[in-house]
Fold this protein.
Amino acid sequence: MSPRGRPRSFNRDGALTRAMEVFWERGYEGASMTDLTEAMGINAPSLYAAFGSKAELFKQAVDVYRNNVGLQIWDALPEAATARQGFANFLKETALAYTRADQPHGCLIVLGALHGEKGSESACALLRDQRLDNVIKLRHRLERAKNDGELPATVDCQKVAEFYATVQHGMSITARDGASCEALMRTAEAAMAAWDTLTTRAD
């Protein structure tokens, strides 16, 4: 017998995907319980029974996002023959992913919760940690390039990683503001123009 209050046809994975789309479009605070339950096709008691809280639902929705959305962005880093090409592809794939017509523009990890919003502290902390993890991924690719002799040993991999992560965050915001894919591609090209300065051995 189905738990009380939960529809017999309840599909957890499908409901999580729909919740992820609501959070992505409206943010943690902007997504009301009515928005979420209507999108997920369940009532509020069912939501709490299945996920415990809005914060836990958000956490699981973020996992769905990271495991299913924009994977080509991060695949671009290890697949390229050089770090420079990997970072260029990383930004190009970001421009494409953030402006797709069939999904909300921008990135849930960047836009999902803003610091200072009362009641969203756990969501803010979760996304902050995810963003820091993204910087680590970029830094690891740069460190690999140093070990391979592609980049000088004096390159500050953390600084370079933080720069390109910040560029990507800005692309997310401008995409949500309505910037076109072409505009984001121009940003990507401009950011790559800084590559030599950032990765050249200091005198």
